[in-house]
Design a protein that fits this description.
Elements lengths: L1 H23 L17 H4 L6 E2 L12 E6 L5 E6 L8 E2 L9 E4 L5 E6 L5 E7 L2 E2 L3 E2 L10 E4 L5 E6 L5 E10 L5 E6 L3 H4 L7 E4 L18 E4 L7 H18 L5 E3 L13 E4 L3 E4 L7 E4 L5 E6 L5 E9 L3 E4 L3 E2 L11 E4 L5 E6 L5 E9 L2 E4 L3 E2 L9 E3 L6 E6 L5 E8 L5 E3 L3 E4 L7 E4 L5 E6 L5 E8 L5 E3 L3 E2 L7 E2 L1
Antiparallel strand pairs: 1-39, 2-3, 3-4, 5-6, 6-7, 7-8, 7-9, 10-11, 11-12, 12-13, 12-17, 12-18, 13-16, 14-15, 19-20, 20-21, 21-22, 21-23, 24-25, 25-26, 26-27, 26-28, 29-30, 30-31, 31-32, 31-33, 34-35, 35-36, 36-37, 36-38
């Protein structure tokens, strides 16, 4: 009798242990009882920053579709698409990257991917109508960071990097040319001559890459003027007079903002025949210890944020100049004491104010906001968000009056906090919400066109995992379960 009782207890205990073991196995290839998932004791792991990313997510499509861009263990770039209901297969874009990808969609919903090659140069590949271009580099500037891409106010892409001299460099698209050399999109210098062709067949094409000769890093004004004329009907004196007239006209226009030309010619060329024209790399100066973070304000001006050698955050912004048009400001000190190579999250609120979030040396997140008053816009103080974190912060503003923050806690689970106002219009952070799981990279988050959030991270099984919101019966967003969408990926500096 005792034997059967003992055996029954053993079986019950075994079943309990089996069930417990099953419940302890969360996601991402690691059990909750695994004490050293990185191979190091937790007390040592707390001293290591984990500001590593695994997924780049371009702006969502117009129909709740998503595209993920990752770095494979073969160091090639891989993409995976979500059509709003199902995930497709992983597709390799080939290439060999020494950094993580920067991916962005332009105003025509075309996907662009940028990487840092093994040669230290920045390479670009883009998609048109389902067809991909070849990899093309953006010029001979050696870099020490992966690229960061941002759409500017004209719908063109600006790419930021840290150069080999530790300064920030920027390169901006100026247009797109087809196989016949005709600009099909981009910036175009506005002159009356472009709108009317004279009877003798003169065709005026003005360049799009410079201001006056006293503007640094730009071509002299005279070089902006190119003419194509019929030699049988136009004398040398006429050509000289025309050039003088255009130069005078251009001088009057040089201090005005360039106009956008959405389509000078509708092109049916293959994507392999299309080539983007780039401004060339511009050195913004400084000596920095983190990858740049870039945001755009409601006036269409870009700001770039980096960490200095003193562990503080600095930024420079675009400004308008009466002499040179759009120029970059000097670097401005925002103070703070932040972890090495921190992931700096920057968002622009509905009021046009920039909000920064980064992880401090004490492993807590800190937030700094722009504040508008009668005297203009100024920066507030660094304010603690609360909690201890083992990754960089990911922040977005899905609604006009809230901020959503995500990061890995020191337990390597994903945690979520919301910054919102109460009934008295006083803003504060919510209590942290655990989204569970155990992961090896910072969190990537995107809002689809329905306003629902999708959270991505890299598991210890090297796969990408996703957790997304679904509307319940009362149309309130609730979180689903973590789901693996596969892949064998590397993480990389954010």
């Amino acid at each position: 009798m005792k034997f059967f009782i003992t055996l029954s207890l053993v079986i019950c205990v075994g079943l309990i242990n089996f069930c417990s073991a099953k419940d302890e196995y969360l996601v991402s290839g690691v059990k909750s009882t695994t004490s050293n998932p990185f191979g190091l004791p937790s007390e040592m792991m707390e001293n290591f920053p984990h500001d590593k990313c695994a997924v780049s997510i371009p702006v969502p499509g117009v129909d709740d579709s998503l595209t993920l861009v990752t770095l494979g263990i073969d160091r090639a770039i891989w993409i995976k698409r979500f059509n709003g209901e199902d995930w497709g297969e992983w597709i390799s874009l080939n290439g060999t990257s020494s950094s993580g990808p920067a991916a962005i969609k332009d105003e025509k919903d075309q996907l662009h991917v940028f990487i840092r090659g093994l040669d230290g140069l920045i390479w670009h590949r883009f998609e048109k109508d389902g067809e991909w271009s070849e990899w093309m580099h953006l010029g001979n500037v050696k870099t020490t960071s992966g690229p960061v891409a941002m759409i500017n106010s004209e719908g063109l892409i600006s790419v930021f990097v840290i150069g080999s001299n530790k300064a920030v460099w920027v390169n901006t698209q100026e247009g797109l040319k087809d196989s016949e050399g005709v600009c099909t999109s981009g910036k175009n210098f506005p002159t009356p001559e472009q709108e009317a062709v004279t009877s003798n067949g003169q065709s005026i094409i003005t360049s799009n890459n410079g201001f006056d000769s006293d503007s640094p890093n730009h071509k002299p004004l005279q070089s902006l003027i190119q003419t194509k004329q019929d030699a049988t009907t136009t004398s040398g004196q006429q050509q000289e007079d025309l050039s003088k007239m255009l130069t005078k006209s251009a001088a009057a226009e040089a201090n005005r903002e360039w106009s956008r030309v959405d389509a000078l010619k509708t092109s049916s060329d293959s994507v392999k025949d299309m080539k983007f024209v780039w401004s060339g790399w511009e050195n913004l100066g400084g000596v920095w210890t983190s990858k740049p973070t870039v945001t755009i304000n409601h006036e269409g001006l870009l700001s770039v944020f980096v960490r200095g050698v003193d562990r503080s955050i600095y930024y420079a912004s675009q400004e308008t100049s009466a002499e040179h048009g759009l120029v970059w400001s000097d670097w401005i000190w925002l103070k703070g004491n932040f972890a090495s190579a921190p992931k700096i999250s920057s968002v622009t609120t509905s009021e046009g104010m920039i909000v920064l979030t980064a992880r401090g040396m004490d492993k807590s997140f800190y937030m700094k906001k722009q504040i508008a008053d009668a005297d203009g816009v100024e920066w507030g103080k660094w304010e603690p968000v609360g909690g201890l974190w083992s990754s960089g912060a990911t922040v977005l503003s899905p609604y006009s009056d809230t901020l959503e923050l995500f990061g890995l806690g020191i337990d390597l689970s994903v945690w979520h906090k919301v910054f919102t106002a109460n009934a008295d219009n006083e803003y504060s952070w919510s209590a942290p919400e655990s989204l569970q799981g155990r992961f090896s990279s910072s969190v990537s988050v995107v809002k689809d066109t329905s306003g629902l959030l999708h959270v991505f991270s890299r598991g210890f099984d090297q796969a990408i995992w996703v957790k997304q919101q679904f509307p319940d019966a009362n149309n309130v967003a609730t979180w689903g379960n973590w789901t693996s969408i596969g892949g064998s990926t590397l993480h990389y500096p954010c």
